[in-house]
Amino acid sequence: MDRRVIVYIDGFNLYHAIDNLRQPHLKWVDLRSLSQSLLRKGEVLKAVKYFSAHATWKSDAVARHYAYVAALKARGCEVILGQFKGKPRKCNACGTKWMAHEEKETDVQIAAHMVSDALRGETDRLVLISADTDLSPPIKMIAAHAPRCEVFVAAPPKRHALCRALGPKLELSAARIAKNLLPASIQTGPAKTVHRPTQYDPPNS
User: Which of 47, 53, 98, 107 is the most exposed place for a label (fewest CB within 10 A)?
Assistant: First the structure.
């Protein structure tokens, strides 16, 4: 029987790592195809879980994110959204005040899904794409209470050295991501199509 694999993707952690590569077209990555590329012989992809939140105060960015989320859903990814909450900030030097935004719930959601799936025997190998070391405790809990479930951490591009506490086994490369991009247009429902944002057009397209 094939071993079942569930992939858990820390959306903003991966997004910011790709953003640092200065190759915007890589942001249009097909997470289901990317997850398939991480499978071993004798494994089957049971689910791809994408965790993120909409930055609703950024009109252009959130429009692109809505399009991306719709595309991921059309590809069969499960999307679990948290939220941003405002947090007042003040400059101690000049007294200027402003409202900052902090992403909430994402790492907790990832941890909860990982531990729940592992303890209920829903997966034989759990693949986490993140460099967030706050996810170390759930990994340790799984190792202690569901040792038959293998945890495999794939660090986002250029983040391997930043997440050694997670014990990453692999670092995603720009080349791997480039081989797993979504098409320019994706049908998301009857008479509904989402189009790749022009900011994400590949070079020389």
Answer: 98
